[in-house]
Design brief:
The structure is a homodimer.
Chain A: H1 3-11, E1 15-19, H2 32-38, E2 44-48, E3 54-55, E4 58-61, E5 73-76, H3 83-92, E6 97-100, H4 110-126, E7 129-131, E8 138-140, E9 145-146, E10 159-163, H5 166-176, E11 181-184, H6 193-201, E12 208-213, H7 219-232, E13 235-239, H8 244-253, H9 261-270, E14 274-275, H10 279-291, E15 300-304, H11 307-319, H12 333-338, E16 349-350, H13 352-358, H14 360-373, E17 379-385, H15 389-395, H16 398-407, E18 412-417, H17 421-430, E19 436-437, H18 441-463
Parallel strand pairs in A: 1-2, 1-5, 2-4, 5-6, 6-7, 10-11, 10-12, 12-13, 13-14, 15-16, 15-17, 17-18, 18-19
Antiparallel strand pairs in A: 3-4, 8-9, 8-11
C-alpha cells in the first residue's frame, strides 16, 4: 500500500477501532471517545473490551475479530505484553493502520525492546504500518478526528505539528492557539518524521509545520523530504537532546539516538528547516508563518510609543540578524509634521509626542502607514499600549494597526505593553487581525529575522 | 537637606502641587488627579492652572505663589520654555522637591539643553532637587501616591522599580503584577540611579529592585551604593543602549551616554547587580525574588509529566549554569514504587506512568516532596498540565504544588503547559502560592540559575 493511502487511513479514517479503552467515560476518565463526540467525528467508532458491553453509549465487541464493518484505523491501548497479539488480530481482520499508545517498549527495558520487535514483525507479515508506541497519535481538526485520550479543543488552524511527545501535542494548543493536524510519532518504531513530513507537507490546508524531534533519522531521504516540504511551507523545528545529558535521556524517553548535534544542525540548515531553541520562539514563529505575509528582506520599521523600546530594538536588531533600515525620502515627513519642533525623528519612530498633540489614531496611523508604504521597509514592529478598558479607547492602537496591516502585504508584529498586555493581545487575535501580537519585543525581532532567513533560503533554492 | 529628607518628599509627600494639568478629568484626559483619587491618596492635592478655577472638583490656584499651606512636592508639566521660571517660583514658595514630566530638554535640541541647564541653575539657587525631566515620576503604592498621568493599578508588592522610561513604569505592571514603589528618573538631570537606589535599597517593604538604565553614571559612588543595596536585596538590571546604534539613540531619548558596554558589564558584575538581557527574563526573575526563598546552590530537581520536558531541562541546564543533581539515596524510592516495573527513574523524574496508575495528587506529590526534602536539591522545577476546568481537577497539580512549597524553604517554579496554561498560571498566582508560575521552562531555568548566582555573590561578600 502506498504512503498516501496510509496517510488517509491515519489522518482521516472513515472508521476507527479503540482496542483497550477505559470502562467509563466523562471527566477524569481520559476516554478518547469523549473527545471524538465533542469533536463530532463523522466516522464509525468501534470499541473493543473483553469485559464490558457498552462504553459511552456505544456497543463494545469482545475481540478485534468480532468487529463489524470496515475498520480503517485501530488505536491500541492494551498492556504491552498483549500488543504483538493484538497486531496479529488486526492483521487477520484486514486493518492496515495501527496506533499503539502505551509506553513500556524500546524506551523502557529489554522486554520492551523485544515486544517492540515482535510487534513490528507481526506488522510486517500483514503490511500494517504502526504509529508509536508511546504516543497520543493523531488529531485532525479538519476531519474532526483525534485518537488522543487527553482532552483537546478542536480548532481549524493552518498549523501542522509533528512531535515525539505529549508535551507538544497537548501544550502547543496553548502556544499556537490549536493545531489543524498533529502527529505524535512517539517512539517512531515505524511511521517516522519522514512519513509525517510527507503527509503534512503536501496538505494545502496547512501553511506551516511545527516539528519537535528527539532523533532525526532517515539520512538522505530525510534531507530530500525536508527540503521538498520547506520549499512549499516552512518547518519550524525544535530538536531536543542536543546536550550530552539530554541525548542520553532521550534514549530512555522514546528510544531515540539524538546524534551529534553539529551534524544535525548542518543537515537541518541545508534542507531549509528553521531551527529554534526555545518553545516560546517556536510558538511565536509558527503563529507568524500561519498568519503573516512573507518577510521579503531584513529591514524592519518600528513605530513605538516609547523611546526606550526603540533603543531595545536597536540593541537586538544586529544580534538576531536584522539590518538597519534607511527610510525612503518622505516617509518620515508626515509624522514629523505632527511632532514637536524640537524632535528629529528616525527609525525607530517614537510617536509619543505626536500622540500627545494629535491623538493615538492620527499619530500612530500616520507613522505606520508611511512605513508600510516604504519600499525600503520589509516588515514593521509596533510597540503599543495595553491599558484598562476605559483608557484603551483613547490610547489603544489596536484598530488602526488591524486596518493598516490589512491594506499592505507586509508582516506586522505588535508588542502590547502595559497592565492589560496579555488581555489586549488575546482580543487582538480574537478579532482576526492579520498582524501578530507577540509576548515580547525581543521575541518579535527573532520572529522577523527568522521569517526573512526562510524567504532567503527559498530564493536560493529557486535560483539553483 | 539630606538625601533621606528628599526621599520622603519625593516618595511619600504629605502634599503635592500639580503645576500644569489638563483642564478636564476622566477617561482619555490623562489627568493625574484621577489616579490619586482612585488610589485614595491621603495627602493634600494642590492644583495650579492660569485659566481654570476648578478641575476634578478641586480648587485651582492661578500661580505657584498663591498656593496655601505646605507643599512637599511639585509636579511640573508646563511647556518647556516656562519650566525654569516655574522652578524659581517653587523656590520662592519654599518647595524643595520637583518632578518635571515634559519632554523637549537635553534629549531634544540645543534650546532643550539650554533650558535644562537654566532649570538646574534655578534649582541650585534654592536647594531644590529635580526628578526628570521626561519622566512619569514616582509611584508609591504603600503611600497611595503617584505623580503619573498614565492610568495605573495600585498593588502593594515588595517590588521596587527604577527606570528611565514609561515603557517600564507602565509596562512592568503587566510583567511583574505591579510595583510597590517606582521611580522613573527620565533624563536624570539631577536625581539619578544612585539616589533612587539609596531611596529604594533601604526600604524594608521591598524585597527586590528592577532597574532599567540607559546610562550608568556616578563612578565609584554608583559601585558602592549598588554593592551595598545588593548585599541586602537583589537588583535585577536591564541596561539598554548596549549596541552602537542603540547607544546613539539613547542620547536622543534621555540625553544619556550609554558608555562602553564591557566596562558597564564588569562594573555591574562587581557590584552584585544581576544583569539580564530580555524584558521577560527580568520580569520572571523579579517575581521570583519577590516571592521565593533563596536558592542556596545550583542543583535543581525536576518533576515532570513529560519525558520530553525532562530532556529539554537537561539541554538547558548546563547552558544557563545549573549543575547536575545527584539525588540522595532513597529520594527516588517512593515514586519508583508507584511507577511501572519497566521504568527506571532518575532526575528529571517523569511521573506520568505513576500518574496513570495512582492519580495526579499521589504521584506528583510523592516525587515533589522527596525532591524538596533531599539535601542535594537546592530548588525544584515542576512541569504540570493546564487543562479545561472539567479535567483540571483530575490532572491538575496546582494544589499539591502549593501545599508542598509551603512546607519547605526551597524555591519552586512551575511551568503549566496545555490549553489553559496562562489561565492556570494566573489562578495559581491569585491563590497566593509561594511557588512561582513561569511562562516557559527555559525561563524557569534561567531564573533558578540567576537566583543561585546571586546567593553565591552574596556569600563571597560576607566572607570577604
Amino acid at each position: 500500500m502506498k504512503s498516501c493511502c496510509f496517510r488517509s487511513l491515519f489522518l482521516s479514517p472513515k472508521s476507527v477501532a479503540f482496542v483497550g479503552i477505559p470502562r467509563t467515560s466523562g471527566p477524569g476518565t481520559l476516554n478518547p471517545v469523549d473527545n471524538l463526540k465533542r469533536w463530532e467525528y463523522g466516522g464509525q467508532i468501534h470499541l473493543v473490551h473483553p469485559h464490558v458491553h457498552e462504553i459511552a453509549g456505544l456497543p463494545v465487541a469482545r475481540k478485534v475479530a468480532e468487529l463489524n464493518g470496515p475498520v480503517d484505523l485501530a488505536v491500541v491501548s492494551t498492556p504491552r505484553e498483549s500488543v504483538p497479539g493484538i497486531i496479529r488480530q488486526c492483521g487477520n481482520r484486514g486493518i492496515k493502520a495501527v496506533i499503539v499508545t502505551n509506553q513500556g517498549f524500546a524506551e523502557a527495558d529489554s522486554l520492551g525492546k523485544e515486544l517492540q520487535k515482535r510487534m513490528l514483525d507481526e506488522a510486517a507479515r500483514f503490511g500494517i504500518r504502526i504509529l508509536g508506541p508511546n504516543t497520543l497519535g493523531i488529531s485532525n481538526a479538519f476531519h474532526r478526528f483525534t485518537s488522543s485520550f487527553m482532552p483537546q479543543d478542536r480548532v481549524e488552524t493552518p498549523i501542522g505539528l509533528i512531535c515525539q511527545s505529549g508535551l507538544f501535542f497537548v501544550g502547543d494548543n496553548q502556544l499556537v492557539g490549536g493545531m489543524g493536524i498533529a502527529v505524535d510519532i512517539g517512539n517512531a518504531c515505524d511511521v517516522g518524521i519522514v512519513d509525517a513530513l510527507e503527509w503534512l507537507g503536501n496538505d494545502d490546508k496547512l501553511r506551516v509545520i511545527a516539528l519537535h524531534a528527539e532523533e532525526i533519522k532517515g539520512g538522505n531521504r530525510f534531507l530530500e523530504v525536508a527540503e521538498s516540504v520547506s520549499r512549499r511551507i516552512p518547518v519550524v523545528a525544535l530538536k531536543t537532546g542536543r546536550s550530552v545529558e539530554g541525548g542520553k535521556v532521550a534514549a530512555s524517553h522514546t528510544g531515540s539516538m539524538a546524534g551529534d548535534d553539529r551534524i544535525v544542525d548542518a543537515a537541518m540548515k541545508k534542507s531549509g528547516l528553521i531551527r529554534i531553541d526555545e518553545t516560546q520562539d517556536q510558538a511565536d514563529l509558527v503563529r507568524a508563518f500561519a498568519r503573516l505575509p512573507p518577510m521579503r528582506g531584513f529591514r524592519v520599521g518600528v513605530v513605538t510609543l516609547s523611546g526606550a523600546a526603540g533603543i531595545m530594538f536597536l540593541d537586538n536588531m544586529d544580534r538576531y540578524g536584522l539590518k538597519p533600515t534607511r527610510l525612503s525620502p518622505g516617509t518620515i515627513d508626515g509624522i514629523q509634521s505632527l511632532s514637536p519642533d524640537w524632535m528629529r525623528l528616525a527609525n525607530p519612530i517614537d510617536v509619543w509626542p505626536a500622540v500627545m498633540k494629535k491623538g493615538m489614531r492620527k499619530a500612530f496611523g500616520t507613522a505606520l502607514k508611511a512605513l508600510l508604504a516604504d519600499p525600503n521597509v520589509d516588515g514593521v514592529i509596533c510597540i503599543a499600549l495595553a491599558l484598562a478598558e476605559a483608557e484603551q479607547g483613547h490610547l489603544g492602537a489596536e484598530e488602526v494597526i488591524r486596518e493598516l496591516s490589512e491594506d499592505f502585504d507586509k508582516p506586522v508584529v505588535v508588542w502590547f505593553y502595559g497592565s492589560r498586555g496579555e488581555a489586549t493581545a488575546k482580543r487582538f487575535e480574537k478579532y482576526g487581525s492579520p498582524a501578530l501580537a507577540v509576548p515580547s519585543m525581543e521575541g518579535g525581532i527573532r520572529v522577523m529575522a527568522a521569517m526573512a532567513r526562510y524567504e532567503k533560503w527559498k530564493e536560493s533554492r529557486t535560483d539553483g
